[in-house]
Structures are given as structure tokens and as C-alpha cells.
Amino acid sequence: LKRIVRQVAGELGKDVEFVVGNAEGEMDRNVLERMVAPLEHMLRNAVDHGLESRDARLLAGKPEKGRITLDLTHEGGDIVFDMRDDGAGVPLEAVRRKAIKR
Fold first, then answer.
1. What mean pLDDT do residues 64-83 have?
2. Whether the predicted pLDDT of 31 surpasses 70
3. Interhelix angle for 29-45 vs 2-12, to 10°?
4. Would the pLDDT of 25 be above 70?
5. Distance of CA 70 to CAs 49, 62, 96, 98, Å?
6. CA 62 to chain centre
7. Torsion angle of the four alpha carbons 72, 39, 50, 10, in this order, in degrees rounded to the nearest 10
């Protein structure tokens, strides 16, 4: 997953820190293999759409390096993946306009 973040960040000219928390616990290999593709997709989207460009981050008073975190926790028999980035968030008005257009 770190390779995906480095690759996409390099392609887009963004500086990104990717932090994985609580990864030292046990996880069923089958579960992990099934989750890799969706996690890769979410990471690509976070780097591409979630994190602003270096200049936009600096204008917003943020560090130039964006941050994506993935925390893994167990809740009962379930594994919870919590992925976050420190980007600007979803532009709700743009999403609304696109939804209405469709």
C-alpha cells in the first residue's frame, strides 16, 4: 500500500506521508487479500482528489506534505479499516451540481 501512495504521489507531484496504525495485530490472509484492491482504490483517490496541491496546502496554512492514515482495529469478530486524509474534504457544491446534472 505504501508503494501505491508513493507511486501516485510521484505521478501527481504531491508530497504525502502514509501512516499505518495498529498493523501489528493478526489478520486473516484471505481478508487482507480481498481488501487490497479496495484499499488501493481509496488510497489513489485520497492522493489524487483528497489532498490538495502543495501550493493550495500552503495557502490554506497547512504543511506542504499531505498525510493519509490507515488505522486497523478489531471490533468483536470484525476488522475495522479507518482511512483518513488531511485534505480539504469533498466539495459538496460540486458534488451536488454533478448529481443534479445526472
1. 90
2. yes
3. 10
4. no
5. 17, 20, 28, 29
6. 17
7. 110
Residues 6 or more apart whose Cβ sits within 8 Å of residue 80 = 72, 73, 74
Calpha distance 92→102 (Å, rounded): 15
**Identity of the amino acid at 33:** E
The Cα–Cα gap between 94 and 92 comes to 5
Q: CA-to-CA distance for 48 and 98, rounded, in angstroms?
A: 19
Cell of 66: 499531505
Evaluate if residue 92 carries a pLDDT over 70.
Answer: yes
Helix, strand or coil for residue 21? Answer: strand
The grid coordinates listed for 16 are 504525502
